[in-house]
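Hi W., the S-adenosylmethionine complex you wanted:
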Amino acid sequence: MSRMSDEQQDSEWPPPGLDLDFSKPTIARAYDALLGGKDNFAADRALAEFACEHIPGLKESAEENRKVLVRGVRYLAGEAGIDQFLDLGSGLPTVQNTHEVAQASNPEARVAYLDVDPLVLVHGRAILAENDNTTVVTGDAREPEAVLGDPDVTGLLDFERPVALMLVGMLHYLSPDIADAVVSAYRAALAPGSYLFMTSLVDTGLPAQQELARITRENVAEQAGWARTPSEIEHHFGDFALLDPGVVYTALWRPDGPVHAGNLTAGEQLGMAGMARKNG
Ligand SMILES: C[S@@+](CC[C@H](N)C(=O)[O-])C[C@H]1O[C@@H](n2cnc3c(N)ncnc32)[C@H](O)[C@@H]1O
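Structure:
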């Protein structure tokens, strides 16, 4: 069983003043609920709880995804010397957002956040109001031309220079019929020296992985929720040069301390991460 009952989907709190539907869960808000955030409503919490009941280690997997985001951005802004970030499917602001991690290494780093959920803009604008080097855009990552031509994005980022394009916790929302075209359009738009950083729900044959994809498709959006094999994830890096250690479970991607690859928990086996550089 992987569809919530109507009762579970009922919202207890439709706040006035915002033209948003809070009676149905969204990915951004359910993920915020998983991370213990406050920017979510009853329907989102119900979905998060429902998914946790069916998917062992889901919360931990969300936390691992945030941790690898931080490690990846720290590497990009530090060692790799990247000072421009396009964070697609950025999610609701949480602790250690991309701009905070990047600007800790380089205070001049610029970050454009984009998310399909308008609530991200509502919360993001308030938090980022004082930071001239960040912007938050409501948009659909499945439309690369619109994203790359958005005046807020082009006003902040110079695509003639290297950019880190992030699809972190996001690749699995691109359906198989469009994923190739979408990701390759982003790769093509990047200047040499740019990076692509992706994490995704993975399919290594564990039932929970496909089950999570199905729960997302059935409760949030029909086209959003796809578990990919490691080689399918790797395929989306195209001819970019994959950095060590390749596409691996997120906990194993450049961990801060020792991690036992043979001893991963259920939650640690839900997602994989990879980063690649556009040479040339
Ligand atoms: C699991 S969260 C990941 C958030 C953040 N990137 C992270 O890794 O912590 C996925 C985010 O992608 C957003 N998203 C899903 N489909 C999208 C699309 N087509 N365009 C833009 N954002 C999308 C959701 O609204 C959600 O905020």
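The pocket of S-adenosylmethionine is lined by residues 27-28, 31, 65-66, 69, 88-91, 114-117, 140-142, 168-170, 173, 224 (CB under 6 Å).

W.
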